[in-house]
Please model this.
Amino acid sequence: MSLSAEKTEAATQVAVQRCIEPECGALYELNEQLYVCSRCGGLLDIEKPRELIGDALALLDLWKARLGSLEQKDRSGVWRYRELLPFQAESPIVSLAEGNTPLYDGPLSARYCGLDNLKIKHQGCNPTASFKDTGMTTAVTQARILGARMVTCASTGNTAASLAAYAARAELACTILVPQGQVSHAKLAQSLDYGATVLEIDGNFDDAMRVIQELAEDESIYLVNSINPFRIEGQKTVAVELLQQLAWQVPDFVVVPGGNLGNSSALGKGFHELFNLQLIDRLPRLIVVQAEGAAPFARLFGRYEQQAVKQDLPGSFESVQEPKTLASAIKIGAPVSWKKAWRAIMWTNGRVLSVSEQEIADAKAIIGRDGIGCEPASATTVAGIKRLVADEIIKPGESVVAVLTGHLLKDTDYVINYHRETLFAPDAVAGDAEQRRRIAGTLSNHPVNVKATKTAIREALARVQSEHKLP
Ligand code: F0G
Model:
């Protein structure tokens, strides 16, 4: 039920949930358990009135001081920025000290892309090794506030692992739906170890997402996929942490992978709020990069670019029926948050593109050579930046941040196969010969079999060092 007319008036004084559809804009109280607008089916945003946030400039000092605090709330890279979140001081926070992720320089990756410098924000350094934790802390806190008995999600693996951990901390029952045989062992192992009930469905992520939304009609089950606006609230704080690490110097571009499109929606909202609070004087351009075989959002942007007169939305959104990519985290054909992500692209004069399996694999290996590493989906960022520099959309001297979303150890099968040159792209054309689908080990670094003698090892080292490839 939406707020009545009088409440709508009063709603300016409290944080609310608002339908993002401009012609609807229905308002709901925070404690209403819904995921989309019950009037029109639109996505929901959380809106916190400026008066409740307080003096924005004073926040800069407060947030800086909290970096040296030992208080649990301050140690979290999400709750440190709690003035921007829709919770009360006494809210029962579920936290694993998430966020606080490093911002690295990636000199080799920069050179590979043709940039003078590249900053890398590694969200894989979160407690469950993916960016999902920054949103899960707020979503599971909200589940506690609502008194949910069970939390649930559909997942390509990382959301599941993250939810399983936070549910365990909150002592909540947790059920996750994953596409059978399409989730990496590491991610599955995490969910099992954290005690979640894992249901493997015979279908892909989009099927799992559809079924779970039907299941969540039951009020005792709380859905925490990124369609849940409380997830987005936590994830938006990454924008704040990043800007604080950059001493509030706005980068020209921030680049993220795109799957279900929650992350891009959240970063867009974060930057937009900082801009509205006048904590930054311009917005970074948000770039979303998808894998070629799972790129419905990039196709939408392609149609937008081709228009002589740019309409805000170039026709309807077309899903990809059978998404295909080895970057299993983003093997998604019907992203639920595309409208929020589109809004973020429009707000920031951003762009969307897709990259090939080979480009992802090589970019991933380069990120590894910087001593950083990531999972395949995250490497779309560096692959995308290289393309945009080649296309002169990004200039070599501009400031660019690539957001890596998952840790290298999330998918070791992929890594080993790349370096052994036994990695094969998915079948783009049915029955396509294996040889044609082989991913070239451009930067492969395969293990060497060697006899256990000093001479054999010396010979092997001399051989390997002369072969060592770097671009
Ligand atoms: N990178 C990684 C490592 C991911 O796990 C995901 C999404 C994305 C990028 C894409 O982010 O969906 O916000 O656009 N993983 C979800 C999951 C779908 O179930 O773990 P997005």
Remarks:
- Confidence is low (pLDDT under 50) at residues 4-11.
